[in-house]
Design goal:
Length: about 150
């Protein structure tokens, strides 16, 4: 995934987002609003208590070439793909999911991101704890039928 730092608003490279997404500045503002959510506050508090507090640049708005919401990279932080975000809830979910990954990375002694079993477990855990896999979200995405997963 290519990521580009947010340009200065006055620079000639500052432009609107593509495909209905947000500009990097708009996305960064949405990330800041995410810090008001109880789940984000809870995760930040427990990261701090675990000795893994995060800095101001841990969660960044970036431009992504791939069609993803964002990602967490150990040692680099959480990247939120502003050009693929449309509403606050999408940003909130990406921030929450990334913070869950950060917490797991902080606390798990034998975590190996290159191990497929560890990685799958981390993704399932983050999906469930973040609420991303809630049946209402899946219905809205069109991934679940009324009779269940078929």
């Amino acid at each position: 995934m290519a990521d580009k730092p947010a340009p200065e608003p006055r620079s000639s490279t500052f432009s609107s987002a593509v495909n209905g997404g947000k500009t990097l500045e708009e996305c960064q503002d949405m990330i800041q609003r995410s810090f008001r959510i109880p789940m984000v506050k809870f995760l930040l508090k427990h990261l701090e208590q675990a000795g893994c507090g995060i800095g101001n640049r841990f969660i960044k708005a970036v431009h992504c070439d791939k069609q993803i919401a964002g990602d967490y990279a150990r040692g680099k932080g959480i990247r939120v793909c502003g050009n693929h975000m449309n509403i606050q809830d999408e940003v909130d979910q990406m921030v929450i999911r990334g913070l869950i990954h950060a917490f797991d990375n902080c606390r798990a002694a034998n975590l190996n991101w290159a191990n497929c079993a560890h990685y799958a477990c981390m993704e399932i855990r983050a999906g469930h704890l973040s609420g991303d896999c809630h049946y209402k979200r899946e219905l809205l995405r069109g991934f679940v039928k009324i009779r269940g997963h078929e």
